[in-house]
Amino acid sequence: MAEKVLMKGNEAIAEAAILSGCLHYFGYPITPQTEIAAYMAKRMPKVNGCFLQAESEVAAINMVIGASAAGRRTMTSSSSPGIALKSEGLSYLAGCDLPAVVVNIQRGGPGLGGIQPSQADYFQATKGGGHGDYRMLVLAPASVQEMFDLTALAFELADQYRVTSMLFSDGILGQMMEAVDISSLCAQANESPAQKPWALTGTRNARKPNIINSLYMQPEDLERVNRERFVRYAEIAAKETRWEEFLTEDAQVIVVAYGAAARIAKNAINAARAQGIKAGLLRPVTLWPFPKEALGRLSACARTKGFVCVELSMGQMIEDVELATRCAKPVRLVSRTGGMVPSPDEIIEKIRKVNAIENGRGG
Amino acid sequence: MHTARITIFAGHYGSGKTTLALHYALALRQARQHVALCDMDIVNPYFRTADHRARLEAAGVELISSPYANTNVEMPWIPTQALRVLDDERLTSVIDLGGDSGGALAVGRFAERLQALPDTAFWLVVNPYRPLTGEVDALLAIRREIERAARLRFTGLVNNANLGAETTARHITESYSFLQGASEAMGLPIVMTAVRRELAPALSLPRGMGQLLELGELSSRFSL
To answer: How far is CA A148 from each of CA A1, A186, B130, rounded to the nearest angstrom?
Structure first.
C-alpha cells in the first residue's frame, strides 16, 4: 500500500534474496539472525521455493554447495559461532568455484560469547575462516536499506565471479527497523538469472558432463587452478571495491568505520564539526576487497593528521588501515567488545586527540 | 471508553506490541491507581519492557517480567507473578505478548481464566507498512493462527501504521481505508490508533479509528 515498508534488517535480507531469485535457502536458528530463517519459512512456500531447516550449520552450508552446483541461486545465514561451523563449506565453495551468498549477523565472541552485537568476525570474514588460498567478497551494510540493496548485489557479484559473497553485518542492523524501498528488485523479479553453462543440470546426452570438484591430486594442477582463481580475485579488487566518503573533502581527521559503528561515527563527526574540528568518515562497504587506494590517497593528503578506527571488536580492521596507509600517519582505535557499543562521546574524544597532533607526530 | 481489567496486545512480529503496551500502561496510570504491565513475550530477547523498568516505576506502573530479562541466561519464561494479573482484582493490567502464534502461546495456558472474566480486551496490533501484513488475507491468516494458539477471540484492532522515523501524517491517513477494510472483513472494531506525539496535532482522527494513543520517545542513549 506504500512505496516503502518497515522492515527489520534480517527481514530485508530475506526479502531481497527472494526477489533476487534465491529460491533455495538452508539455515539453522541462532540469535540474532533467526528472523531470516523465520521469514524464509513463511515466504518460500508462497513463491514455490525451498526453505529447509538443516540439522546443523555444517549440513546447511553443504546443502548450499549442492544447490549452487545445480545452478541455483542459494543462501544460508547464521551468526558468529554458526559461521565458524560453516567454515569448511566456505572453503569447499571456493575450491569448487561455486557462487553463493552467506550471511553473518555477528554477535559477541569468542566461543558462545553473547547475543549482543559485535564486529569481531572481521578476521574470520576477510582473512579466511576456512582453509586454503581463497577469498570471499565481503559486503558490510550500514542501514536496513543497504541490507536489502547489498543482498541483491551479493547475488549478482557471486554469479558474475563464481565466488561466495558474504553479507557481513551485526545484531544492531539485523534487529533494527527502518523504512525500505523494495521497488528496485520488484521491477526485475521476473527476469531469469544468468546462464550457468558449468552447472550440473543434466547432459541429456547433448554435451559432455560437467564436473564440480575441489580435489586436485597433481600439485601442478592445483597451483594452476589457484592462480587462475586469483586472477579473478584481482579483477574483483580492481572493479568491485566500494566505499563511502562523508565530509572527507577538507577533513584533517579521518574516521574509518563500517556497518553499525559507521552510523555512530557519523554522529560523532557531525558533533566534532560543530566544535570546529574538521573530521570526516571513510566507510568501507566492501571489507574484501578493502578500499586501500582511497585510504592511501587520504593518508597522502598533507592536511590529514591521522586516522581513528571505530570497531565493535578489540581492533581487527585497524590492521588493514595501517597496511593501506603504510602507517604514514597515526592510526588510533576506538574499541568496544563483547556486545558493548561506543557512544559518540568516546569517538569525539579520540578525534580530538588525533586533531591535536602536529606534523604527523605524537598524539 | 470502557477500560477492561486486562488488555492483551498481540500481533505480527514487529507490529509494535511492546511499544504500544508500554504507552497504554502509562496512559492507563493517569486514570487508575493500580496498573501493571505484564511481559509475556517468550519469543524475542531484544526490545523488552524491562529496558524501561525505571520509567515505568517512576510513573507508578508495576512491571511484571521475567527475572531473567536482559541477563545472560535469557530464556523463554512466563513471570511467576503473572497470576496476579488474574487474581488481584484491584489491578488494571496490560499484557504484552510475543509475535505471531509462537508468542501467543504464552497466554493460551491462561485462556480459561481469561474467558471467565467479563471483559478481557484482546487486541490485534496492525502496522500495514510491515511486510506480510499489508494485505487483508495475510492479516486474516495471522488472526486465525494467533487465536488458535491463544485460545482467545480478538475483540478489537489497533492501528499502529508507521514507517519508523520516516513516518509522516500522510502515512497514517493513508492507512485508514486499509484498516477499515480489515475491520469489516474481520468483524472487529478499530479500538485505537497510535500516533507519534509530534504528528498528533496534524491529525484529526476520523470516526471509526478508535481512541488516540500518543507515543513519546521512550529512551535512547543516542540515535543511530
So the answer is: 19, 12, 15
